Amino acid sequence: MVSAADINIPLDVPPAMHDEYVANFNLMTHGTGRLMLFAGDQKVEHLNSDFVGEYELGRIPEDDADPEHMFRVAAGSTIGVYATQMGMINMYGRDYSDVSYLVKLNSKTNAVKGKTMDPFSDQWLSVQDVVDVKSDSGLRIPAVGYTVYVGSTYEHVMLTQAARLINDAHRNGMLAVLWIYPRGKDIPDEKDPHLIAGATGVALCLGADFVKVNYPKAEGKDSAEIFKEAVIAAGRTRVVCAGGSSTDSRKFLQQLHDQIHVSGAQGNATGRNIHQKPHDEAVRMCNAISAITLAGMSVDDAFAIYQGEKSLEFKAAV
User: Fold this and answer.
1) Do β-strands 100-104 and 81-85 pair in parallel, antiparallel, or remain unpaired?
2) What would the pLDDT profile of 63-79 be if each residue is shown by its tens digit?
3) What are the pLDDT digits (tens) for 111-164?
4) List of domains in the chain
5) Annotation marks residue 181 as catalytic
6) 113 classed as catalytic
7) Choice among 104, 134, 212, 277 that is catalytic
8) Can you tell me the distance from the alpha carbon of 296 to that of 260, in angstroms, rounded to the nearest whole number?
């Protein structure tokens, strides 16, 4: 368990909520300080293209067409939090009350293309709405999340909403995770390492507990090395890396290991590399990711867990 002394509790968390904040931090990180975030917000972000049809590695399994697939996977594996929209949690949460949830408070579809307008993702609900559902239902909801597109002509609105959301979350002893992506007509390269470092610095200035960013890319450069800039720029905000589109599982686990053990990231946020698999395989992938993220295991051991050759020997702290 991570103690209050080990966590830099933000000043906007009232003293009376310190214990709640520490408990929520330990719940979502299993007492390790690292976050394994199972990202399930794509039903809005990518509409149904992530759940039915062809994709990079073949054909998406039939399991993924059912929205309950992600809840089954979250409940059957070791994760930190399952991140999705409030409506999904309202509809399925009663049947999956053992899952820890992060409520994504804004989302937009990909139907409006970037050539039409710069991206803008407006806030759907308030933190108080989440607090009310948490209180009424008894669900484990330690955190809320929000996406900011820096570089968009609408960034000022999203930055303001994010700042207020983080303050509201902290006032209630909850954590806040930001998704921050450089994106808009004036952004020529969304994976530019300096821009991604800028994004993590913005998250720090907003007071986020964790920030999810894309893995940087630059010609002739090692991504694990150039990602260090973003981790340093984030200061006391913990950086987690987006999983991206589905890729070779061994390669993915190696990249995840490098992000944490070379770059210094404090976790990962993975969606398609988990849910675009049949149920049993998706559960094994969650456990393989957690083996690296939470248990500090090697890529070889994590891959063996994914292949079903060994089990994850990790006892959650909470």
Assistant:
1) parallel
2) 999 999 999 999 999 99
3) 988 788 999 999 999 999 999 999 999 999 999 999 999 999 999 999 999 999
4) 15-306 (3.20.20.70)
5) yes
6) no
7) 212
8) 9
